[in-house]
Each structure stands twice: as structure tokens, then as C-alpha cells.
Amino acid sequence: MPCLNLSTNVSLDGVDTSAILSEASKTVARLIGKPEAYVMIVLKGSVPMSFGGTEQPAAYGELVSIGGLNSDVNKKLSAAVAAILETKLSVPKSRFFLKFYDTKGSNFGWNGSTF
Predict the structure, then answer these.
(1) What is the pTM of this model?
(2) Whether 2 is catalytic
(3) Which of 2, 35, 48, 57 is catalytic?
(4) What CATH number does residue 64 fall under?
(5) What residue ranges of the chain have pLDDT lower than 50?
(6) How far apart are alpha carbons 67 and 81 in whole angstroms?
(7) Which of 47, 52, 90, 105 is placed for a possible disulfide with 115 were both Cys, Cβ 3.0 to 4.6 Å?
(8) What is the per-residue pLDDT for 106?
């Protein structure tokens, strides 16, 4: 159910994206309290992006979940995902935005239906 969609202007050529996907998936599942079997992570690199008027390494993310999000969880998720991006892709924490969406099951399609 939770889906973390990350876009960055950093090239992913030569980057171990599997490590990023795995760490992000485990982190999202743990912090939201959902089974990892339902977590989806999307990572897009080399996306044309400007932040603060420069094209230095930056990233934008959106996390959608059916429940499990609140101000405390969101702070932890923001810190954890920023740390992953900083460690794995050298995107400074100050150059990353993460938007949270807590949605109803009827607004989330899966397996040919909705939740």
C-alpha cells in the first residue's frame, strides 16, 4: 500500500540502486507499520531538476499510504529517506523535499480493484 516515489537529478549510472530500493523499502515498512510485501519504491534518476536556482544534486519525493502517517511518523520518514539519499546519492538533506499523502483505501487501486 505505501508507495514512495523518488526523483533526483543525480545520475544513477553505476549506482547500486538495489541497495537504495531495499533500504528504502524496509525503512518505509518499519516506520509506517505496514508489511514490506505491500511497499513500493520508485526511483528515477537524471530528472531535470532545479532547487534554489541551481542544478546541484537534489531530490523530490512523494509518499502515499493508506493510514500509518502522522506528524511523528512523517518526521521519522523524512529524516530516514533524506539520510538514504545523502549516503547513497550525495544529495544533501537540505536539498530534498518529501510530500506525504494519507489516502483512503477506495483511492488506491491494486490487484484490479481498490482497498
Answers:
(1) 0.94
(2) yes
(3) 2
(4) 3.30.429.10
(5) none
(6) 19
(7) 105
(8) 92
